[in-house]
Backbone:
């Protein structure tokens, strides 16, 4: 089963370009997706996100990952140069019936989220024995 | 400190974004051209850094998710602070390594190079560069006649 018919990244661009909220719009984190016969492994880079700031939901055929950064600038610190934002991260995938959402497992280590998404029985490759 | 601004890949695709500054679009566009041009010279990937200061230290916070602490190398020499890291990746079924590096200009006469420390938490590296006494802000009493 091709990846593209099973797990599709969803990009919701509801924001209007050039709006002042641009800086606070969650950014799409970098991620990679690997597929085996049994499952998909989704690896998402979420630097600065802790377990408390992370939400993973699988609802109505859409897998959503949102991460908020927990770090706040300590008192007395003055920013000199900023490239990161406090806007957090958001990533969504449409999986329809490709994965068994009951069996999703997740681990967050050093700012990297690793999700194991077992394929639904119907989507696993089946070897057909020819008699 | 001078450095070339990092643009997060997710922002790079979009048209220049004005951050409440009429010249922002042009500025970002120029930065982007430099980033693209300079990117060709190094095989290493870059990462986002934030720089802060308080009265005693300068702090560099770098986004380095998923690297081993042993694979992080922070070096200060010749007025430069260089942060290098490698990260293991899976490309298909084979294991690969990605190299990241970033160099910031940090004048030797401003920091106590032997007292630089670094900490790694939740994929963020924080480098603390203690200021030299002479670089700290000084309170000067000026008598007004």
Residues:
């Amino acid at each position: 089963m091709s990846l593209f018919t099973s797990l599709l990244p969803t990009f919701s661009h509801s924001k209007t370009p050039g709006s002042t909220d641009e800086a606070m719009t969650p950014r799409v984190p970098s991620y990679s997706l690997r597929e085996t016969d049994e499952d998909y492994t989704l690896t998402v880079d979420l630097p600065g996100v802790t377990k408390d700031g992370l939400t993973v939901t699988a609802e109505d055929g859409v897998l959503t990952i949102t991460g908020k950064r927990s770090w706040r600038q300590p008192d007395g610190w003055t920013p000199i140069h900023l490239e990161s934002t406090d806007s957090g991260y958001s990533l969504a995938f449409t999986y329809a019936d490709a994965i068994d959402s009951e069996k999703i497992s997740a681990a967050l280590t050093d700012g990297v989220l690793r999700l194991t998404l077992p394929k639904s029985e119907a989507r696993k490759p089946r070897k057909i024995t020819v008699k | 400190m001078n450095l070339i601004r990092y643009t997060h890949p997710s922002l790079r695709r979009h048209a220049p974004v004005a951050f409440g500054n009429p010249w922002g679009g042009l500025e970002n566009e120029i930065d982007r051209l430099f980033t693209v041009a300079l990117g060709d010279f190094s095989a290493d990937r870059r990462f986002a850094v934030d720089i802060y200061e308080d009265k005693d230290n300068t702090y560099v916070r770098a986004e380095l998710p998923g690297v081993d602490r042993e694979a992080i190398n922070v070096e200060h020499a010749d007025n430069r602070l260089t942060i290098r890291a490698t990260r293991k990746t899976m490309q298909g079924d084979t294991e690969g390594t990605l190299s990241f590096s970033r160099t910031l200009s940090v004048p030797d006469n401003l920091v106590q190079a032997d007292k630089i420390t670094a900490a790694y938490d939740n994929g963020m590296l924080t480098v603390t560069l203690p200021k030299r006494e002479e670089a700290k802000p000084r309170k000067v009493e000026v008598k007004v006649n």
Summary: The domain at 44-133 of chain B is CATH 2.60.40.790 (Immunoglobulin-like).
